[in-house]
Amino acid sequence: xxxxxxxxxxxxxxxxxxxxxxxxxxxxxxxxxxxxxxxxxxxxxxxxxxxxxxxxxxxxxxxxxxxxxxxxxxxxxxxxxxxxxxxxxxxxxxxxxxxxxxxxxxxxxxxxxxxxxxxxxxxxxxxxxxxxxxxxxxxxxxxxxxxxxxxxxxxxxxxxxxxxxxxxxxxxxxxxxxxxxxxxxxxxxxxxxxxxxxxxxxxxxxxxxxxxxxxxxxxxxxxxxxxxxxxxxxxxxxxxxxxxxxxxxxxxxxxxxxxxxxxxxxxxxxxxxxxxxxxxxxxxxxxxxxxxxxxxxxxxxxxxxxx
Length: 307
Hints:
Number of strands: 12
Order of helices and strands: HHHEEHEHEEEHEHEHEHEEHHE
Number of helices: 11
Largest sheet: 8 strands, mixed
Distance between the termini: 32 Å
Shape: globular
Strand content: 15-25%
Helix content: 40-55%
Radius of gyration: 22 Å
Structural class: alpha/beta
């Protein structure tokens, strides 16, 4: 079996779209299709249902995906620790971070800690979407929900508050106040349908009475830009809204949502002091930003637990 066939299979399985997967992996759509066809021929089984709306995994494809991801994770783990013959070993530490928490809090925290002088390299992966944890896929993972599987130890390192926000210009245009607004009167901004499974998106639908979104985006930054421009209201972390001077809206229902921030460590890195150091930096960045992350103090972090 060709490793590249599995790699392209994973790419299409995660996006459900050959064109989108080919753009992400920087190959042609024809190349993606050729590798998938070859993999199906090798295994003598159909892995996808080809539909006008995209590629949908068959039962056989669903069974293969976690196995393929495990192979990919093991390969990436070896690549990160391998060095050219005769060269000094330089570790590459792979960190998976939520989009805005990484951009606004953790990455600046790494800079303040002097990461540029560290004797290793960092690889940051955007984890805006919920992905499966495979042993070896990342050295460190930061998530807003604790997974219940994978070869990782887990530690709660903080909390994050979210609420519904809009700009003052939007409120002025609506000629309304922020106290107890009926969400049916708001122009709603949120995630695309493909990312509607995200916990925040689900909570937003519940709070706003399942009102359809009029503006949808596939990342948080675009949603922030839309709110700042006065195009409507959406759910945002407190620290993002504060940074842009946005106004918190109180609806007739729930006013805020809080999530724990979990730091997950690949158990295969337990004896690596460089990973210890990066974990210390990330934990400190969250701790230092505590007052901007939550509306009120939450419970203290928990001890490490394996799962």
